[in-house]
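>> received
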Amino acid sequence: LRGADLRDADLVVVMQENRILSNYPLLLGRLWSPRRVAYWGHGVNFQSDAPGGLREKWKQMMLARVDWWFAYTEMTAEIVRRAGYPQERITCLDNAIDNEAFERDLAGVTDAQLQAMRLEIDAAEGAPVGLFCGSLYPDKRLDYMIEAADRIHAALPAFRLVVIGDGPSAGEIRAAMETRPWLKWLGVRKGLEKAAWFGLADAVVNPGAVGLHVLDSFCSGTPMMTTAEARHGPEIAYLQDGVNGLVVHGGTDRYAEAVIALFNDRAKLDAIKQAALRDARHYTLDNMVERFADGIARCVAMPRK
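>> returned
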């Protein structure tokens, strides 16, 4: 923004990032300027290697020095409240992306496609199919996923696991495939082909970091199964254990047991699928934009903090 744009603004919304140096003059300017400043952010760095380090302490020190907070999710809103920031100055955005194209692709998947895909992965009719879809990197806990999948397959020999995506840890999946014919890595798939795999799968097997891709799970009604200990993004707040997905505590044995139990309880699995589909209607880009607009209006109507 140009200086003139800033001088005329009633409110400037900035990302809550230590490294964005242009934030600091705006925050300092609150001492003499009537212009309001708001944060848009996570509250903390959820993937920090040093959550007690200087960077996070600095972020916490600066957390309340704004007139308004646009929190990514309710998890962020709770972090901000715990820091003593007033609830009436917090807007929970429920961060989302535009999933309309994905929903159209899902609607375009045919029974013939699904049948052909079952043949491709040698999955019998009715056999449980797990899907991993995302970048392949250490925070995704791929070693944990493979070990848990071994346990699931030992209990349910018809089980198949399909991995979509690529990344620096792809070698782990490639190596695992050599001795596991029930594991299929397909690389990156997009559009209708990605949607079709979500349509075929019974669940998203994702014991590692959960972010915005949880919305793919909701839109497709394919429950996500993750772990509590992973280094999640703030969107983990959307996942309710036993309601619209699974959040398992503990090792691969506990995770596998939970997945097996759900595959064996079709009534519960169907109930979780329906809950996920319902929540897809809540976590939309349109709703997020409405919350943002409402927060802007309320912020400029209130006295400065």
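>> The longest helix spans residues 285-301.
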